[in-house]
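To: structure subgroup
Subject: Chain for Friday's discussion

All,

I'm putting the inputs and outputs inline so they're searchable in the archive.
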Amino acid sequence: MGGGAMIGNGKTVVIVDDHETLVMYLAVLMSRMGFSVIPARNGQEALKVLSTVSADLVITDRNMPIMDGMVLIRQMKNTPTLSDIPIIMCSAYCDQETLDEILELGAVGLLKKPVKVARLHSLLQDCVTYPNATKRRHLRCPFGKKVSLGIDGQTLELYAVILSEGGIYLRTQKPLETGTTLSVRFEPVEGQSIQVQGEVIYQKTVFNDIYSIDPGMAIRFRDLDDAQQSVLRNAIIEILAGDLKDDSQNPLIDHSAELSPSSVTTPVNETPQPGQRLH
């Protein structure tokens, strides 16, 4: 599971797009993933922000007034103080030509609109690193529900802090010893209970930097079957983005859980539908 921190872990992302609703939704989503968010309406505004703020990531639209995303990428890569900041382009244009162009310019990857949460998480793995160059490969979300632990015939109830596809972090002043095996039972979504086997892999006491994360322990799930993995991924995406919906016919956030092969590797040639706004 990699501990109890969220993937953003306080890092700063600048979101560049002239679509106000999308910026709002992405800002909420990225905040829930642990990022601090600064919005900008176009490339010019983004450069002004980047001249005063130390950013860890930029997510930019392609088509914007005043300065578009392509020009922004070129400007950043030609500016020594900005050239190392990872850039993700977020656009309805997801053809091979666009992908090749932005990769050649130095961007990390291409995020298709509507934004798929799992694809965003996948791209973030190429942008966000932690001590010892570790990655947060599992999708995770804030999670404050009660969890029941079964240990040697006894039951212990604790509150969770973070839920991931690979495990859960629980708040407690007296964490169990690393290596303790136990059963874990909780409701990832209302009315749907899941029970899995787990092992304590990490613990943090009150006197171990309490301000970075609640004292407690991380439990890694063991031997999850396909159904359990599906329940967890769908629940986490619902928690992160389930309320990020609007009334338009063209959704801005895609709540589906699975990543298609084309969205993981190379985007397919796609033309936006009639009436759909291009970005």
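Points worth raising on Friday:
Residues 259-279 have pLDDT under 50 and may be disordered.
The longest strand covers residues 192-204.

D.
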